[in-house]
Design goal:
The strands form 3 sheets. Strands 3-2-1-4-5-6 form a 6-stranded parallel sheet, sandwiched between helices. A 6-stranded mixed sheet has the order 10-7-11-14-13-12. It has about 350 residues and is of the alpha/beta class. Helix 4 links the parallel strand 4 and strand 5. The longest helix has 17 residues. Helix content is about 30%, strand content about 25%. It has 2 domains: about 160 residues, Rossmann fold, CATH 3.40.50.720; about 180 residues, Dihydrodipicolinate Reductase, domain 2, CATH 3.30.360. The relative contact order is 0.15. Helix 6 crosses helix 8 and helix 6 packs across helix 13.
């Protein structure tokens, strides 16, 4: 497979994560980097203030940044745009025939737009055909969920399928990178926890219902169980840790829950997609794990680690995932890989 791809919003933190993950991708050739008018015309090394731990890939240093508008050579465009800009710009690309793999929230809950986790709801990519017909587009928009929603939904999915869920409560401890490099002032977060992230709780409470829903007659019938979220910003760089309380429809045991999550796999694993983790959910038996610094990079940051699994009538656990890899750029890339494999591009 040999597919040309571009990144829009290429100079920001998520844009940089896209570039890092795409720089040596076996299927995707990174041919275009787009950003604001302020950055357009500059070499990428001059336009971007690189903030990731790893070095900027040499292959992109001399690429000239272009404006964020259709016209450059690419079959897939990875969008790291802020949602307010994505709402206007992403349809322009889709109308012109690009596949837009978006990390933005602007179109996640649109009825004809897939909100995709390939291990969870790969059949939802069939919405693309409906989207193209309804909107008269040659291309399409496909979205990945909010970072906390992805980390939550991966371990919850096998439990919902096997035992059913009546009530799900989650308290998140979210890394500062989720707000972008300049999103949380240092004086606000150092020596502090902020018990509010604007709009986050609503996303966590609604997106999972769409992802776990069934595609019937061209529409997604959302899953109906109670979800309650409390979201907190904590002073770690990367990695969202979440505490879960799950009430199941069928009586179950801790051992059954562990076994169900441990054996969970989906289309990415069966198709051996390049970015897919071998195990979407990793079970840890250590009393004090998962821990953000020690577990966020498991399987290249694409797995979710679950631990402290306990309870009888109500199952409790702690889960952890890398918010800018599995929760953002890596998720969009995995979505694009599924589309490519299924010949939806």
């Amino acid at each position: 497979m040999n597919i040309d791809v571009g990144v829009i919003g290429a100079t920001g933190m998520v844009g940089q994560r896209f570039i890092s993950l795409l720089s040596d991708h076996p299927w995707f050739n990174l041919t275009a980097l787009a950003a604001s008018e302020r950055s357009a015309g500059k070499r990428y090394s001059k336009a971007a203030d690189w903030v990731l731990n790893e070095d900027m890939p040499n292959s992109v240093r001399d690429i000239e940044v272009v404006e964020t508008k259709p016209g450059f050579q690419a079959d897939i465009v990875f969008s790291a745009l802020p949602s307010d800009i994505a709402k206007k710009v992403e349809p322009q690309f889709a109308e012109q025939g690009y596949i837009v793999a978006s990390n933005a929230s602007a179109y996640r809950m649109a009825e004809d737009v897939p909100l995709l986790i390939p291990e969870v709801n790969p059949e939802h990519i069939d919405l693309i055909d409906i989207q193209r017909e309804q909107r008269d587009w040659d291309g399409a928009i496909i979205t990945n969920p909010n970072c906390s929603s992805i980390i939550l939904t991966l371990p919850v999915t096998p439990i919902a399928r096997e035992f059913g869920i009546t009530d799900l409560r989650v308290a998140t401890l979210q890394a500062v990178s989720g707000a972008g490099y300049t999103g949380v002032p240092s004086m606000a977060i150092v020596d502090n926890v902020i018990p509010y992230i604007g709009g986050e709780e609503d996303k966590v409470e609604t997106e999972i219902q769409k992802m776990l829903g069934d595609l019937e007659d061209g529409k997604i019938k959302h899953r109906d169980f109670n979800v309650t979220a409390t979201c907190n910003r904590v002073p770690v760089l990367d990695g969202h840790l979440e505490n879960l309380w799950i009430e199941t429809e069928e009586k179950t045991t801790v051992d059954e829950i562990k076994e169900t999550m441990a054996k969970f796999e989906g289309e990415p694993q069966k198709l051996d997609l390049p970015t897919a983790p071998k195990n979407p959910v990793i079970i840890t038996e250590q009393d004090d794990r998962p821990q953000t610094r020690l577990d966020r990079n498991k399987q290249n940051g694409m797995s979710v680690t679950a631990g402290r699994i306990r309870g009888e009538n109500e199952i409790q656990m702690t889960i952890l995932g890398h918010n800018t890899i599995r929760g953002a750029a890596g998720a969009s890339i995995l979505n694009a890989e599924l589309l490519a494999k299924k010949q939806k591009i």
